[in-house]
Amino acid sequence: MTQAKLLPSLPPLPVQPRGVTWPTADWPTGPCSADPRLIEALLAEAFEGDPAGPLGETHAVVAVQGGRLVLERYGAGYGPDATCRSWSMAKSITQVLVGLAVGDGALDIHAPSGVRGWDGLGDPRGEITLDHLLRMSSGLAWIEDYVPGHVSDVVEMLFESGKSDVAAYAADKPLAHAPGAFFYYSSGTTNIVSRRLADAIGAYGEDFAAFMRQRLFAPLGMRSPEPRFDAAGTFIGSSFCFCTPRDFARFGMFCLRDGVWEGRRLLPEGWIDYARTPTFQQPGGEVDGAYGAHWWLDRWGPGSFAAMGYEGQHIVLRPDLDLVVVRNGVTPYETRPAIQDWVVRFVRAFG
Known about the structure:
By secondary structure, the chain is an alpha+beta fold. It has helices spanning 36-47, 89-104, 130-134, 153-159, 166-171, 187-201, 206-220, 245-256, 271-275, 336-348, and strands at residues 57-65, 68-74, 226-227, 241-242, 260-261, 264-265, 296-297, 305-309, 313-318, 323-330. The protein has a single domain (36-348), classed as Beta-lactamase (3-Layer(aba) Sandwich), CATH 3.40.710.10. Strands 2-1-10-9-8-7 form a 6-stranded antiparallel sheet, sandwiched between helices.
């Protein structure tokens, strides 16, 4: 699945415990294994602290261990049926959708990507593969900046001149580095992947949404997802798939179960191992931590991997603890290290 061999240090992914029902219809519940005093202190810090403080507002925290819902807490105005923003957690959903197409034989991640506009004679972007794109190593010029007043390709793409065709905006960028030689996190990259997936399956807009529902959301019992599309019919896979916290947890558990649900394999064998295999990062490129294929790696404990999004959205997976933790809320960009530290402490409270 990857340009490098899978590392032997990858911990095995846990299987569904015998006798525990799958949460397709509803979540089985169970006791929380963490120290209750520590957990209550962490929850108080998140939910009862000053909303203008470094953690901002926490809207939901959900924990699933051993396939059972063991903890959930909601802020004022939120509950199990409230949909929350994904922001960049949608990138990991996009990676899973690509895996479905790979399993169908519709995509080869190691072949030239076939992105529209890159097939001109002598265009060096024609050498970019989906593997490069999924690993944020395409080499395309990009500025991923969220600070008001700064030059920002991601803001321009999502909200300004690029918003009607997010993939075309991103794909029009020139190469700044050789493909595979330079890691740089880019929301534009994900929207190129999303468009290439749509081309491969011949589905855009509502037809693509139907593919998402039929192949991923419905089998898992995810009834809340609200994916957003641009005017060109491309799923804005970098940023926009609203869900309830419980449905984010279903998605996380599906990935923790290696793409198997109710005993049926939905993703190709090895696709989740591909996602959690580290990507090469040039010296100095590790400023935000290790990265796999559209998943962040390792900061929450040994072998952990996570979908993360703007304003502190998290779906964290700890294979060794058979644990999924979801946090939704609004944390200011400038204090994001505070919520990242809180999630690390919360996850480690279970181990």
